[in-house]
Every structure is written in C-alpha cells, then in structure tokens.
Amino acid sequence: MPAKGKHRRPKAQRFTRSIAVAGTGGAALALPLLGATGAHAATPQSAADSVSSASNASNAANTASRTAASAEGKKADAKKADAKKATTKTYAVRSGDSLAKIADTQDVSGGWKKLYSDNRSSIGGDPALIHPGLKLTIDGRAAATPSSDSTAPKAAKKAEKPAVKKTTTASKAADTLTATGFALPVDGATIGTPYKMSGSMWSSGYHTGVDFVVPTGTALKSVGAGTVVSAGWGGAYGNQVVLQLADGHYAQYAHLSSLSVSAGQTVTAGQQVGLSGATGNVTGPHLHFEIRTTPDYGSDVDPLAYLRANGVSV
What we know:
Among the domains are: 74 residues, no CATH class; 142 residues, Glucose Permease (Domain IIA) (Distorted Sandwich), CATH 2.70.70.10. The chain contains six helices and twelve strands. It is elongated and about 100 Å long. About 20% of the residues have low confidence.
C-alpha cells in the first residue's frame, strides 16, 4: 500500500555553465563568456616587434664579431711586417771592404757570391766596384759583430776612427805643381776603395788602383808631363785615358764621362785629360786611377806611394 503523504516532484538539475539570454522577439541567443586567458593574449603587432628586435640584436652581434676579426687581422699583418723589417738588415760599405771580407765577417751563407747575387742591382756588373757608403743587404739577417764578446761593439767603434782618417779629402794645397813637376790627378776628392784591397772577385786577387770619389764632370789632370798612349773605350773601365809619363811609368784614368785628349798627344803636368764619370762597370761616379810599369793591366804599383815619392801631398 502506498505510503501516506504527498509525492514531491524532483527539481530539475541546474546547468553549471552560465549563459546570457537576450530576448528579441521571443528568440534567445546564447553567448559563451570569455575565459580569463583571453585578456592576456599577445596581439599580432607586438609579436612582430619582438621578432624585429631579436633580428636587429643578432645583426649587431655579427657586425661586432666581423669588426673584431678585422682588427685582429690588421694587428697580425702589422706584426708580420714588423718582423720582416726586423730580420732584414743592411751593411754600409767602409773603406778597405771587399765583398769577400764582408761575407766572411757577417757570416753570409754562400759567401761573397751570394752577397753579390743579393745586391747585384746596387753593385752593378763588376763585384769589385763597391765603394764606401754603399748599402748592402746581409742575407736577410742582422749584421753580425766581429766578436761575440759584449765589448766587441765598443771596440769596433774605436777601430773605425782611424779608418775615417784614411778616407779624408785630398789636400787642396796640391793644386799647384810640386817641385818635381807632379800634380794630383783630381782636386778635392775623397779616397774611396784603396790600392790592393784584397778580394776573390778580382782576377788579380786585389784592387789594382785607387778610387777618388768625385761627382760626374770633375776635371781630371795629368799627374806629370808625358804622351797619351790611348784614349777611348776600355771595356769594364769605360772611357779611359792612358799616359806614358816622362820617367817611364804609365798613368791610367778610368770611368770618364768625356775625353779631353787623343792618342799621340803630348801633355804637361796639371793639364786636363778628361772629366770624371760613371762609364763602364761602376755603381757611382768616381775616378779609378792606376800607376803602371807598362801600359797593360797587371803591371800596377801603389799609385799613392808613387805620387808621394814625387812630392804630391795626398
């Protein structure tokens, strides 16, 4: 039998989702509410700005990296250039030097032939014709000192002083003839390569004359009275004049720029025979002067000793 009492109608369950209803002519429109996360969503414009900023930062970093690399490269090149300059040294030729002597004292690998090969453009066609002041490259290395002793450089400087005295300017007081009728071959000249300076580059093993360093066009004089044996081209000697002097000796003047006498002509002491120059195998203007016992090469005697014996101050 049914229980007594009133039956209760069960209540309809409520929807947990909220909807907004708008009445329009009896119709209902349900709109879902916006979630809380929608308020913080990024806009398309702000995303693009972020990408652009990141790209600019990357480009700046790349540029800085390339600039730093370029700077390092320039520093490395500068160091290489400085290192090359430090290893390439020169040697200034002094009075009494020869290529063989320089190669020996500077320990040049390959000897004087290597030294000549490295400096041929400066020396010229004849390795014997080097003169004081000529700069030579020493095998791409620093010039060596004569001794490993720490006092060697000071000793070398002291030793140079007498050498400077040997290359002093010839006395101008000898412009006039001496009592024996002799004169200087050229006035106001500096003595360069001396007589009998040894070296394997000479066929005779030494320098057969003495060099007077003078500018091109300087007047050259007969050292004594005599006769012109020859006047013209002399091969490696360039333009030359050979005189037979009254005492039987012969005087040779080489590398002339022009001749003032001709073969067979008689000359007096002090008379001009030509002008100095740089013809033949030379590296600069000068007078190569010899005194010989015959007119031919190889019969040389000390020219300065000969002049001094005849009263010429030189």
